[in-house]
Amino acid sequence: QGQLGGIVKMLETGRNCDEVITQIAAVGKAIDTAAFTLISASLKECIQEGGSDAEAVSAQLQRLFLILA
């Protein structure tokens, strides 16, 4: 079940709203971190296949992450 299952149980048992919101925020942060880690690895691989140098790859990644933000 993990964190999301824990949040559902918190809601079902009537836990304090502050506690539930804190857990929801933690889940959101974990998802964001995982997503950006996966995306950065994939994007870097795609960009490097194009034969770009390291500086160009870095600039391209920064531009793409700003689009995602």
How confident overall, as mean pLDDT?
83
* Beta-strand percent range: under 5%
Number of helices: 3
* Quaternary organisation: single chain
Succession of helices and strands: HHH
- How much helical structure, as a percent, in the residues? over 70%
- Amino-to-carboxy terminus distance: 28 Å
Task: Give the total of domains.
Answer: 1
User: Can you summarize the main beta sheet?
Assistant: none
What spatial form do the alpha-carbon principal axes imply? Answer: elongated
What's the Cα radius of gyration?
18 Å
- Low-confidence residue ranges: none
Label the structural class: mainly alpha
> What is the strand tally?
0
